[in-house]
Amino acid sequence: MSPEVQKTNGYPQETESKPLINDASLLWSETILKTNPHIKAITLAYYSVPGRQDKVKKVNTQRLIRAKDPAQRLRLFSAKMGLDYNCAISSIVETDNDAIDTPLIKPQQHKKLAIHHPMAIPQMDLTIPVSNHNTQLAIDILDNFSTDWFLLNSGNSYHAILNTTCTLTQLPLYWSQAVSFFSQAAHEPFVKKRGQELAGALAQNASSKAGLKLACDQLFRETFALINHMYGSFDNFTKLSLLDWGHIGYSVTNLFGFYEGVSAGTGYLRIGPKKEMGSPQLIAQRVEGKVSLLTNTTTQYAF
Length: 303
Description:
Radius of gyration: 19 Å
Number of domains: 1
Number of helices: 8
Distance between the termini: 42 Å
Shape: globular
Structural class: alpha+beta
Helix content: 25-40%
Strand content: 15-25%
């Protein structure tokens, strides 16, 4: 059963006195890292902004940020590239939890980044356009999770972050829940049916490296082929699914790559500024079971 939600006229109560934070990098540095002090390092990836003629070659530079003051380091690194580069953060974090056992990971992996005692923070990429109605829809769906969460306006849609850390074998279980919750709320019959199949595959193969590679990866590829056949393109389908299945499928592939030592992270979401959109902005959150809106969700970015 969902925790009690403070509501006014059927909507979560807006925060009045607090100034608005909070782009995504500040949310990570000032809230997530502070409420999860066992996190000792994060992985950021920089990649070129599409359409820039002077940045024809795609750059994907992954840096492990380990410091006594992660808040300051995160702000510096996320702002360093300005609008010429996007900055994204991985779900996988380094922790000081030496009880974490990762038998699926190859021991020789990640020589450059050397991520110790890895855990994960589940992140989701939504596909519905930003509106007051869709913000309420996203809140209602996210409230099915047992953990606190953050909802951000990413410009075209939303990002969602669960404020919890889990083991790498638990991460696909959260992806399974996300696919299940969002597909149940969708109207398209194919989304409902296929979503439950994807959710089931993720749950059944969460702790199996072979299962992630064979069952989940193959099922996602078959799904994307069906989508292109039925809807003409994946872009035509995304708003119907509410949640970006492509982001989940790519994250599954990257998690397998992390196990194999060829990927530095998974479940990346943009936290840095993007030209004409700004940085993702925190607009709603659940803290200690209470949901609140932080800003008018239809407000446009100002530059």
